[in-house]
Recover the amino acids of this structure.
């Protein structure tokens, strides 16, 4: 009896699978996103290794530049140091350097995070990082990469979080350009760029001007750079408005690690893993 | 059908789709092929109906895990529907020649993406706009790469054709 095979018709099989699909489709997002986070956590190593391949390929191609050569020399230098000690030192140096340069973040806690998965296609611009609720990370917190804000936390689990980049098509943030006294909305456009529209042409906007993310009390206490104006032309539909293209301040495709900003660390609860790592590194 | 081999293949395809695939992105739009879509079409035209149904839904689940801008669900259903439909269609129309395979992958690629987008809207999600040009680009890239990968998959997953329909 135990060895008897269960026969099921193709139609029934299809119906069962459809039912399963529909249940998942209408399940709350918080439950279904756990599958994605679990997958990212379970296969962290091969996913990270796969992500490193394009990065290393790009590095080889751009070795012609002197700046890239210096970067390569630095990489060789650090490769001689012990791996674990190096990782901790780098983290501390990154954070202390960032605080020195950005005085407004002195009171904030910066949680360093590694990028597990990056989805940078024309359709989406997202990272999955190895920090989550357990580290004190919350939804809508800002994420920094190479001294500029690159995105916000859009979804999170215990030990991983999804970062929606400002270039993602579903991202909209309030920004301003220092010399232009008007508030603007920046909408992600995919393809590593974002758009600012609804700005009257009476404002003078120059290519290369920095685009600053407006402060958001509780999440970001001062304006921070998010990108720079790449192109500024009249809107094809409404010539009285600018159509501004913004490119991120840092090369997102080459980022390996980022930092999550917690502006009010006292309220973030228990000591995070990042702090523990920092404390042990400092001894 | 060698199901353990199929499971390993799906896992590898999902990992590649999620990490390595950006290496072969083309144009400024960073258009990449959809490996899971190619695998779905392969199993739909090579296996019998039951195996095609199972493989299509499993590959749809893997495609949803590979995060294409939706939560879990839309791609399971669209892959399942198109995979099953393609399997039944293959009983009537033979899809063996390379141009036919490429056209099939292109059409199924467009169909699954549009259906998944609609399903996500119906479920109250906010799928990403994406862009129709990028969608067509992904389908074309998959259609070009698909027949080549079919040769590899034929070698990796030799499937005896036990269809009742046309041979």
């Amino acid at each position: 009896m135990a060895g008897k095979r269960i026969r099921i018709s193709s139609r029934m099989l299809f119906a069962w699978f459809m039912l399963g699909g529909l249940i998942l489709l209408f399940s709350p997002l918080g439950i279904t996103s756990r599958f994605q986070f679990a997958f990212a956590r379970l296969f962290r190593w091969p996913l990270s290794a796969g992500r490193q391949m394009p990065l290393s390929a790009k590095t080889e191609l751009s070795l012609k530049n002197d700046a890239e050569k210096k970067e390569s020399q630095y990489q060789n230098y650090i490769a001689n140091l012990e791996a674990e000690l190096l990782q901790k030192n780098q983290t501390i140096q990154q954070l202390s350097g960032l605080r020195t340069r950005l005085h407004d973040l002195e009171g904030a806690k910066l949680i360093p995070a590694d990028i597990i998965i990056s989805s940078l296609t024309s359709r989406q611009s997202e990272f999955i990082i190895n920090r989550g609720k357990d580290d004190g990370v919350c939804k809508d917190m800002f994420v920094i990469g190479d001294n500029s804000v690159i995105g916000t936390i859009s979804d999170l689990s215990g030990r991983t979080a999804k970062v929606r980049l400002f270039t993602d098509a579903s991202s909209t943030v309030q920004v301003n350009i220092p010399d232009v006294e008007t508030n603007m909305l920046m909408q992600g456009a995919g393809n590593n760029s974002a758009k600012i529209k609804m700005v009257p042409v009476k404002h003078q906007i120059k290519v290369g001007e920095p685009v600053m993310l407006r402060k958001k009390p509780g999440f970001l206490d001062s304006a921070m750079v998010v990108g720079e104006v790449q192109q500024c032309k009249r809107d094809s539909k409404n010539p009285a408005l600018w159509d501004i293209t913004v490119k991120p301040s840092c090369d997102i495709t080459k980022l390996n690690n980022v930092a999550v900003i917690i502006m009010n660390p006292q309220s973030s609860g228990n000591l995070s893993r990042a702090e523990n790592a920092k404390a042990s590194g400092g001894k | 059908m060698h199901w353990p081999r199929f499971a390993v293949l799906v896992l590898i395809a999902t990992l590649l789709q999620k990490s390595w695939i950006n290496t072969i992105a083309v144009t400024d739009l960073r258009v990449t092929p959809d490996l899971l879509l190619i695998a779905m079409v392969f199993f739909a035209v090579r296996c019998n109906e039951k195996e095609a149904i199972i493989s299509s839904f499993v590959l749809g689940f893997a495609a949803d895990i590979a995060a294409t801008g939706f939560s879990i669900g839309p791609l399971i259903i669209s892959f399942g529907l198109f995979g099953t439909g393609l399997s039944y269609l293959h009983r009537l129309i033979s899809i063996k020649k390379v141009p036919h395979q490429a056209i099939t992958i292109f059409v199924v690629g467009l169909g699954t993406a549009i259906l998944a987008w609609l399903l996500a809207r119906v479920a109250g999600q906010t799928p990403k706009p994406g862009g129709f040009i990028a969608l067509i680009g992904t389908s074309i890239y998959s259609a070009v790469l698909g027949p080549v990968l079919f040769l590899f998959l034929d070698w990796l997953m030799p499937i005896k054709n036990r269809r009742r329909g046309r041979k």
Observations:
- DSSP finds six helices and no strands in chain B.
- Chain B has one domain: 33-156.
- The CA atoms of residues 33 and 142 of chain B lie 5 Å apart.
